[in-house]
Design goal:
With about 280 residues, the chain is α+β, with helices and mostly antiparallel strands. Helices cover about 30% and strands about 35% of the residues.
């Protein structure tokens, strides 16, 4: 008999406790988390999610030879450039309210895409923006690398006109190099020109590669290029490009004979077609 009454009392207690929790949940909805329900996590921002996806692809690149990297590098390129196109749609050319220059704002957006990459994987953006032909041209490039030798480069050109920014050209600059830009005035106002150049490590000397690009309002074109200039150094002026370099076979021969090899100085002048060699002379080492 005692056990019967104890069972009734236990039943009544559990029923009352259940009713109490129901009333508390109705009166104080915020207490649901105290009753064992976990608060839903705050969704990651689109930029953070983008950086995470690029970081995941970057880790896969670590085990991928350069000549087998096109697919992974292409996926990263699409993520970066799609994000840029969306950003351009929300941000007109010009400095920010805090006075940050437009090209810096663009570069920071690209840097955020690569922000979760870990050594030795890295993404290094290079950006410049220039008023041209009643619009604004913005050149966005980056080097994606996963070693000193495994590096790919992307150069994308965007034009802003009538309040809209569209991609107007894209090229894959020389592999295995870094990437820098130098604006170079065209002989006339019908095109915008810029030099892209970079260094790759060589057997005994670094190698210089450079490409002169031209944009005529329709497409991005390669106007001139030099590849793997041995120990090359470039200097871009208003209408002149100077390259100092060595000839590899000459360098090896003279060093073997314990003599100083000659250095060469090539001077190129701007022309309607691109660059024209004006002189190539020997100079002291």
């Amino acid at each position: 008999m005692d056990s019967f009454f104890r069972g009734l009392r236990r039943h009544d207690f559990l029923a009352a406790l259940s009713a109490f929790f129901v009333v508390m949940a109705l009166l104080f909805p915020g207490t649901s988390s105290m009753l064992g329900k976990e608060k839903k996590p705050t969704p990651a921002s689109p930029t953070a999610d983008l950086a995470g996806r690029i970081e995941s692809l970057g880790r896969t690149l670590l085990n991928t030879p350069l000549d087998e990297s096109d697919d992974l590098a292409g996926q990263i390129q699409k993520l970066v450039l799609d994000d840029l196109q969306e950003w351009f749609g929300k941000n007109a050319p010009g400095p920010s309210a805090e006075g940050v220059p437009y090209e810096v704002r663009v570069r920071r957006e690209m840097e955020s895409s690569f922000s979760k990459l870990h050594y030795p994987v890295y993404g290094q953006p290079k950006v410049f923006s220039q008023s041209w032909n009643s619009g604004v041209v913005t050149v966005c490039g980056y080097t994606l690398g996963w070693s000193d030798y495994d590096r790919v480069n992307v150069v994308a050109l965007y034009e802003t006109r009538d309040g809209k920014t569209q991609q107007a050209g894209i090229d894959h600059f020389v592999q295995r190099t870094g990437l820098d830009f130098e604006l170079m005035p065209a002989p006339d106002s019908t095109s915008l020109r810029f030099m892209a150049y970079g260094i790759r490590l060589g057997k005994s000397q670094p190698r210089l590669s450079a490409v002169l690009y031209g944009y005529d309002g329709q497409s991005l074109k390669v106007l001139w290029q030099v590849r793997d200039a041995y120990d090359g150094k470039i200097d871009v002026n208003k209408d002149t490009v100077t390259i100092r370099y060595l000839k590899e076979d000459e360098y090896i021969r003279e060093i073997a004979q314990k003599r100083k090899p000659p250095r060469h100085l090539a001077i190129y002048k701007s022309s309607p077609q691109g660059l024209t060699l004006e002189s190539d002379t020997q100079i002291p080492f």
